[in-house]
Design brief:
This protein is α+β, with helices and mostly antiparallel strands and 248 residues long. Helix 1 packs antiparallel against helix 2. Strand 7 and strand 8 form a beta hairpin. The chain contains two helices and nine strands, in the order H-H-E-E-E-E-E-E-E-E-E. It folds into two domains: 75 residues; 115 residues, G protein-activated inward rectifier potassium channel 1 (Immunoglobulin-like, Sandwich).
Length: 248
């Protein structure tokens, strides 16, 4: 009996076509993507608003501090005027009054410097350097001749709406015997743990502590290098002669 061979028949599946179903799927995708974009935009706006609000609060606190310094300055000036007008006092009292006047005048000078600093930080002039800057570096005496207090002040001019951050590398340069050395602040101070001091601020930041110089080391100058990060990263370098202030 002959075998009958034929081609294999494919089974066809009929799927109904629904234009509305495809339209609804596409519309759902569009709505989802739009919602994600709007959510991201809203979150960004909220973050920006929080940054601006915090900057305004910090600025107002600085203005309050400035006003308090100005009031204290005026009170001290009045005390100096009263003490200066006193005529009928004995020699001992006169010496005490003179010492008090000297101390008050020193405090007045300090307050005037602080008021000037706050004004410059909050309302910088166009002639001043813009962006990150080293405002000041000071060294003070202690009872130990090899131990010193230090204070580094960093400021940001013009753009105070956002934080600026990075690291500050401070080195003491001098000689020990016939060898010239550059000693990182980290090696001299227990208050500094890293090679570069981390900073992050809007208006200004103080870096304070104590440092101990090795015996036989003769300091000559201080080298400060700032390196900020971010889109507007910048590098700032400044040198100071070694100068120790007397305690006030």
């Amino acid at each position: 009996m002959a075998n009958v061979k034929g081609s294999k028949q494919e089974q066809l599946e009929i799927i109904s076509y629904s234009p509305w179903q495809r339209f609804l799927i596409r519309a759902g995708v569009v709505v989802f993507l739009t919602a994600m974009v709007l959510a991201g935009y809203g979150y960004g706006q909220y973050q920006g608003w929080e940054e601006r609000r915090a900057a305004v609060i910090e600025r107002d606190e600085l203005r309050i501090s400035q006003a308090e310094f100005e009031r204290e300055n005026e009170d001290l000036r009045q005390k100096v005027a009263v003490l200066t007008r006193g005529n009928e006092i004995d020699q001992k009292t006169y010496a005490e009054v003179r010492r008090t006047i000297t101390e008050l005048n020193a405090r007045i000078a300090q307050l005037e410097n602080e008021v000037t600093f706050y004004k410059r930080v909050m309302s910088p002039t166009e002639s001043e350097d813009q962006g990150l800057r080293v405002e000041s570096w000071t060294i003070g005496k202690t009872l130990d001749p090899n131990r010193f207090d230090f204070k580094l002040v960093l400021t940001q001019q013009a753009d105070n709406k956002s934080f600026i951050e990075g690291r500050a590398l401070v080195s003491v340069i001098g000689t020990q015997g016939n060898t010239r050395r550059a000693l990182p602040l980290r090696d001299l101070s227990d208050d500094v743990k890293d090679l570069g001091v981390r900073f992050r601020f809007r208006f200004f930041q103080n870096v304070t502590g104590e440092m101990v110089l090795p015996k036989g080391f003769k300091p000559e100058k201080i080298e400060v290098i700032l390196q900020s990060t971010g889109r507007k990263a910048m590098r700032v370098e400044k040198n100071y002669e070694w100068s120790v202030q007397e305690a006030v």
